[in-house]
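A quick aside before the break. I want you to see a complete sequence-to-structure record at least once, exactly as it would be stored in a machine-readable document. Don't worry about memorizing anything.
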Amino acid sequence: MKRYRVAFLGFGNVGRALARLLVAKSAELRDNYDIEWEITGVATRRMGWRASDDAFDPAKLLAGNDETASESGINEWLARAKPDVVFETTSLNPETGQPAIAYLKASLLHGAHTITANKAPIVYAYDELNEIAVARGKRFLFESTVLDSAPVFSLFRETLPAVKVRGFTGVFNSTTNVILETMEAGRSFAEGVKAAQELGVAETDPSHDVDGWDSIMKICAISRVILRMPLLPRDVRREGIRGLDAATLQGARAEGKPYKLLSRAIVNADGSVTPSVRPEQITFTDPLGGVRGTSLAVHFELDTIPGLTIISHRPNLQSTAYGLLADFINAVN
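That is the input. The structure line, written in tokens, reads:
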């Protein structure tokens, strides 16, 4: 039985949920997958670059009580922690993907399987990071980046060989779902933001969600990995939901064609891709018509299958953490 040294780059809500899930699944990992694990590195802005020759106590880490000495940077941290697997859950930088890209590159060069929940490195550096992983005989995986734990990348990688994607449409953002549905009920945009924040899906500043940037990053990630088309955010036509008012939304709902923030990528005859993020009306009979609340979904049009829809119903921190855990199991096995 292999005992894996694991390290966390970022230990916020998702990282902490993953640590709790690892503890909860320890017996199952050991009995069903011959996997044991220990945490030897944790790096955050608050804690610094903490590493240990031995294992951290997960309970102390989760309680914020560990006093292990800090290293001075990513390379020193990796040298001390000696991780077999690195989980990266640092903050998203939609403009450049840094410093996450540099962290992931260092982790792969160190020789660790590297797993991320961060969309930007996939958009800006997938090819480079994947090439390093292949050259080192390691895995670079990122299932949690689009639909939390719902399989998107692994589905195509493992179970849909020789399929050609003709396009896809997604409902990729929980915050905009909640805001639009709150306004359909006659309440204000501000009340919709507050409702999303109370559910824990919106940041204090929701601009990244309501203006379409989160959805754009997901379009670009899917396009780069599954379509093998290197889109950048500037290539995507973008329109957020700020221009919609309660009366318009209520009328659309009464008509049976409510608005959703839809993310589309259409593959043209010449192989190019036409991408967009914008509010569109959608019928209840559409494959994505029943996606409500915090749920997320993507519908693929394929050459061999007329339509394939993947839905993540009401994802939460634990489901995001599960995507990382599943990548861990798939990487080491």
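Two observations worth writing down. DSSP finds 14 helices and 13 strands in the chain. The radius of gyration is 20 Å. We'll return to this after the break.
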